[in-house]
Write a structure and sequence with these properties.
Length: 336
């Protein structure tokens, strides 16, 4: 039996595939390479000694997905595939709704046809919207402030409704906080297209000289030093949470949303200073106006993951930054 990993050549998917292969789990990757390249497969093979099965296909293409299910014995799906840029989602919302929502519905339909009713979904802390106070707890009301966030919320609603309609479905929606870091080999890591929106890829591209300076979006928030606070989580810890979630699918019924974070908050300037300390490289920055849509503080209550998945984050901020820096300094232009 194999696990189907949609989006498995991307950032979080490739790290999860490494951990699955390390535990001798058979995987089948489906990715349309919209935001990734097959070079990540070469690197995964270098790390694990195993070349994962890869099928270039779009999850929206039901015939292609039916072929995947007919040619492979799939026991469960880890569903990473999706578009993820908040800003871009406001420019091309229909592409986001089509890809993330219609694509997931198509995938679920093909899963149902094949009687595969186990899925772990990549959700996001974005579903907590802007009105809840951290620590964010799974029972809090959800909302969305942009099309990307809407797609995550809509898919969660679809998954809850599906599980309610048919008790054979077992679904876990993992709400990721801020994934950063890279595999300790420095062979795989985050490889964003164009100018990064997220803090860590931006900081690391400043560090290798690809970008001149960081804009710190606001220093007048009610936080430790005025800059935004987030719950950064090492991508390998996040990957390991997926292994635990797949195991839990056989125990948990229905649809369960679970936070995946550390429960700790770190400010932008704390990140910048830690990055300087670990890399030994200066990170020029300037304080700029607040970024629209940002909130001061976001961090998780991470207890449910421990209770239901027997998972907690193990890698600290030093490891997150050291591994980010190893990846970026060894691969200044990503996989190119
Ligand atoms: P990523 O872009 O590196 O990986 C996503 C992968 O999905 C890419 O390889 C892309 O080519 C593929 N893909 C996109 N649309 C597809 C389609 N229609 N058919 C097949 N493949 C498709 O992103 P990531 O950071 O690894 O994120 C993985 C998932 O986690 C996404 O669903 C994302 O929304 C979610 N998530 C990410 C973060 C984050 O900060 N990275 C935070 C919360 C949630
Ligand atoms: N920041 C800067 N300068 C930058 C980039 C970011 O100062 O160039 C600051 C932001 O203002 C924020 C912090 O760094 O305070 C983190 O910003 P990110 O863009 O890295 O992360 P966000 O928390 O804003 O967004 C992330 C994901 C979204 C997801 C959201 C909620 O990118 O997809 O978390 O979990 F929706």
């Amino acid at each position: 039996m194999s696990l189907l990993i949609t989006g498995g050549t991307g950032y979080i998917g490739s790290h999860t595939v490494v951990e699955l292969l390390n535990t001798n789990q058979d995987v089948v990757i489906v990715d349309n390479l919209a935001n990734s390249s097959t070079k990540s497969l070469d690197r995964v093979e270098k790390i694990t000694g195993i070349r994962p099965v890869f099928i270039e296909a779009d999850i929206c293409d039901k015939d292609a997905m039916r072929k995947v299910f007919s040619e492979h014995d799939i026991s469960a799906v880890i569903h990473f595939a999706g578009l993820k840029a908040v800003g871009e989602s406001t420019q091309i919302p229909l592409s986001y709704y089509h890809n993330n929502v219609s694509g997931t519905v198509a995938l679920l339909e093909v899963m149902g046809e094949n009687n595969v009713k186990n899925i772990v979904f990549s959700s996001s802390a974005t579903v907590y919207g802007e009105n809840n106070i951290s620590p964010l707890v799974e029972t809090m009301p959800t909302s969305a402030t942009n099309p990307y966030g809407q797609t995550k919320l809509m898919v969660e609603h679809i998954l809850f409704d599906l599980a309610k309609s048919d008790p054979e479905w077992s679904i876990i929606s993992l709400r990721y906080f801020n994934p950063i870091g890279a595999h300790k080999s420095g062979l795989i890591g985050e490889n964003p297209n164009g100018i990064p929106n997220n803090l860590l890829p931006f900081v690391s591209q400043v560090a290798v000289g690809r970008l001149p300076e960081l804009n710190v979006w606001g220093d007048d928030y009610d936080t430790v030093d005025g800059t935004g606070v987030r719950d950064y989580i090492h991508v390998v810890d996040l990957a390991l949470a997926h292994l635990k979630a797949v195991n839990a699918l056989s125990i948990l019924s229905g649809c369960t949303a679970i936070n995946i974070g550390t429960g700790n908050g770190t400010s932008v300037l704390e990140i910048v200073n830690k990055f300087k300390e670990i890399s030994g490289v200066d990170i020029p920055y300037k304080i700029s106006p607040r970024r629209p849509g940002d909130i001061a503080t976001v961090f998780a209550k991470a207890d449910l993951a421990e209770e239901l998945l027997d998972w907690q984050a193990e890698r600290d901020l030093n490891a997150m930054i050291a591994d980010t820096w190893r990846w970026q300094s060894q691969n200044p232009n990503g996989f190119e």
